[in-house]
Specification:
Elements (H helix, E strand, L loop, with lengths): L2 E7 L7 H12 L3 E7 L5 H10 L2 E6 L4 H7 L2 E2 L1 H6 L4 E5 L2 E5 L2 H12 L8 E5 L3 H4 L2 H6 L4 E5 L3 H9 L4 E4 L9 E6 L17 E9 L7 H8 L4 E3 L2 H16 L5 H10 L1
Parallel strand pairs: 1-2, 1-3, 4-6, 7-8, 7-10, 8-9, 10-11, 11-12
Antiparallel strand pairs: 3-5, 5-6
Bound molecules: 2'-monophosphoadenosine-5'-diphosphate (ATR).
Length: about 270
């Protein structure tokens, strides 16, 4: 019997994770089955319990359950605790270990796939919700010279920044006159194809604009290019890299992400 894994979300039918993990399994010779699992909005914990009781070994967790996954974990990694969100569950005996590989996925996509050196650079993180919270600690670990969190609701940025030493919070209009090497869109504005109210001129020469949304040229990416960003990337690489880290946590084997990312890009 192959070991069973799942991605649990609502909705979940659109998820690319089953396809990605099936590729990883073939590539590394791991005998696993990975399925999408729809949980009712008020039934996440029960869905996890049923999957575990049926022999599930681990699961990825996607919207809107990452905070709840954090709450049901009996042990948290440092990065999951910092994010207050879990995207990877590991079932071992009676224990439910919760980890978060999203930030690792972003950092790895920047470094390995996009050739972007985070050390010493000035980073602007737009957004202060769950997506932003998940990447702050891994970004800081790469030693940027500055990390600024800007958000429409400035108080939320202040609360998020307050949990980390040396991180500044502000509103978008406060950024006028500043420059950044890396601007990351961690807001959900792009889901309605809205651009961000960023002041003109914040993209330094050679800068990279990164949208965590994936699969298309987003309003933020177009806005960034028009305003002088040297490059704009979507979050598809982050998706594949966070999946690879989850796979490693479960199986102890690191898949080669490059062919999987190329195949996804090719559609
Ligand atoms: P997620 O878990 O995906 O981060 P969230 O917690 O609802 O979702 O956070 C959404 C983020 O997108 C927030 O930073 C939100 O800004 P506010 O805190 O001010 O609400 C941001 N956001 C959503 N729509 C936006 C828009 N049209 N313009 C700017 N920011 C937006």
């Amino acid at each position: 019997m192959p070991d069973r894994y799942a991605v649990i979300g609502n909705p979940v039918a659109h998820s690319k994770s089953p396809w990605i993990h099936a590729r990883f399994a073939v590539q590394t010779g791991q005998d696993i089955v990975y399925q999408p699992l729809l949980a009712p909005k008020d039934g996440f914990a029960a869905t996890v319990e049923a999957f575990r009781a049926a022999g599930g070994r681990g699961a990825n967790v996607t919207l809107p359950f990452k905070e709840e996954a954090c709450a049901i974990s009996t042990r948290l990694s440092e990065r999951a605790r910092a994010a207050q969100a879990v995207n990877t569950l590991i079932f071992s005996g009676s224990e439910i270990r919760g980890d978060n590989t999203d930030g690792y996925g972003l950092v790895r996509d920047l470094a390995a796939n996009l050739g972007f050196a985070i050390a010493g650079c000035r980073i602007l993180l737009a957004g202060a919700g769950g997506a932003a919270r998940g990447v702050v600690l891994p970004l800081l670990a790469e030693r940027p010279s500055a990390l600024v969190i800007a958000n429409r609701t400035v108080d939320k940025a202040r609360v998020l920044a307050g949990g980390f030493a040396g991180v500044r919070a502000c509103g978008y209009s406060d950024l006028a006159g500043e420059g950044f090497d890396l601007v990351i869109n961690a807001t959900s504005a792009g889901l309605s194809d809205a651009a961000l109210p960023l002041p003109r001129g914040i993209f330094l020469a050679g800068s990279l604009a990164y949208d965590m949304v994936y699969g298309r040229d987003t309003a933020f990416m177009r806005q960034a290019r028009a305003d002088g960003a040297a490059r704009a990337a979507d979050g598809l690489g982050m998706l594949v890299e966070q999946a690879a880290e989850s796979f490693f946590l479960w199986r102890g084997v690191r898949p080669d992400t490059a062919p999987v990312l190329s195949a996804l890009r090719a559609g």
